[in-house]
Every structure is written in structure tokens, then in C-alpha cells.
Backbone:
């Protein structure tokens, strides 16, 4: 059985610079610049800590409204990568993460 490290990524950017690899990153808030625009560099820095050294990893984004959904969509567009919806009421899908 493996273990997971859960990190809430609010105001922890300095802490992240000291980590080599984590299995799970949770973006409690989507990263934004002071202007309110998506902070693409911070997002990449956060999720880039998952799945290093040939290991699997996952990044979870909490989306709590239209503003954070718009930021996530802009991040998808910027990186050209679809961010999949994880249905929290689908137990079979959640168990696949373990």
C-alpha cells in the first residue's frame, strides 16, 4: 500500500521550492496574479511537483464558482491540455486514484 502527501497550496510557494516530489497536489485556490489574471507560472510550478522520477501523481483543483472555473479554463487554453472533471460522487472513479 502506498502513501500520499496532501498539500493545500495557498501561500506555500516558498515551501514548494524545497520539495523534490509529491504524489498529490491540491490547489485549494487557483493561482492568480495581483491583477486577477491566472498565474500560469505558479500553476505549472505547483503541479510540476507531482509524478516526478517515473512515479504517478495527480493535481486536484477545487473549483467553487464561475470565477475559478474561468481561471481553470484559461489555464487549460494556455497549456493546451484538458483538465478532467473528477466526479466526487462516482466512488469507482475515486477508488481508481488509490
Residues:
Amino acid at each position: 500500500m502506498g502513501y500520499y502527501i496532501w498539500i493545500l497550496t495557498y501561500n506555500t510557494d516558498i515551501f514548494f521550492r524545497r520539495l523534490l516530489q509529491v504524489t498529490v497536489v491540491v490547489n485549494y485556490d487557483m493561482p492568480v496574479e495581483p491583477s486577477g489574471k491566472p498565474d500560469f507560472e505558479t500553476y505549472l510550478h505547483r503541479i510540476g511537483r507531482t509524478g516526478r522520477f517515473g512515479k504517478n501523481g495527480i493535481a486536484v483543483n477545487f473549483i467553487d464558482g464561475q470565477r475559478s472555473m474561468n481561471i481553470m479554463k484559461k489555464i487549460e487554453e494556455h497549456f493546451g491540455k484538458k483538465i478532467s472533471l473528477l466526479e466526487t460522487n462516482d466512488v469507482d472513479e475515486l477508488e481508481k486514484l488509490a
Notes: The chain has one domain: 13-96. The first strand starts at residue 24 and ends at 27.
